[in-house]
Amino acid sequence: MYSNHYKDTFMLKIDFQKGTYEIKGDLVQENSNNLRTYFKTILQHDSKIVVSLKSVTKMDNYVLDVFIELYKMALATGKKFRVLKNVDKSLLWILKDPRLKSLLKS
Predict the structure, then answer these.
(1) What's the rounded Cα separation, in Å, for the pair 14 and 4?
(2) Distance between CA atoms of 48 and 33, rounded to whole angstroms?
(3) Are 87 and 94 in contact (CB under 8 A)?
(4) Which of 44, 42, 47, 45 is nearest to 16 (CA)?
(5) Is the dihedral of CA 88, 33, 22, 106 positive or negative?
(6) Which pTM was predicted?
(7) Which structural domains are found in the chain, ordered by start?
(8) Which residues contact 92 (CB under 8 A, 6 or more apart)?
(9) How far apart are alpha carbons 67 and 102 in whole angstroms?
(10) 90 secondary structure, DSSP code
(11) Which one, of 71, 58, 68, lies nearest residue 29 by Cα?
């Protein structure tokens, strides 16, 4: 579990289940570097990463940029980085972001 302290506590938990990394917590600027570091390390060892956001209720544009960066990094090394389209209602806006079209997976 990764946590970062900034005014309030922003907790981030990532569980690996059935081939998918399920993220729980708030994906915001304050923990975006932890998220980046975590998945960069995994990309060094795995050829495919699938991320679920169904347990995330808050996300900001900083994290979108991290996902785009990770996707491009995976692409450049012949690997796959995908985010499942199954999201909480509060995050439906991310499905409409054109920058994520290639990265989203049904």
Answers:
(1) 14
(2) 20
(3) yes
(4) 42
(5) positive
(6) 0.85
(7) 2-105 (3.30.750.24)
(8) none
(9) 11
(10) G
(11) 58
pLDDT in tens, the chain (106 residues): 444 433 444 678 999 999 999 999 999 999 999 999 999 999 999 999 999 999 998 999 999 999 999 999 999 999 999 999 888 888 888 888 888 888 888 7
CB-count burial class (<10 Å; 0-12, 13-18, 19+) for 70: buried
Structure tokens at 67: 């996902």
Q: Give bridge partners of residue 23 from the DSSP assignment.
A: 14
Residue ranges of alpha helices (H) inside the chain are 29-45, 61-76
Residues of 15-46 as b/e, b for ≥16 C-beta within 10 angstroms? eeeeeebbbbbbbbebbbebbbebbeebbeee
Instruction: State the CB neighbour count (10 A cutoff) for residue 76.
Output: 8
Q: Which residue has the tokens 């990265």?
A: 103
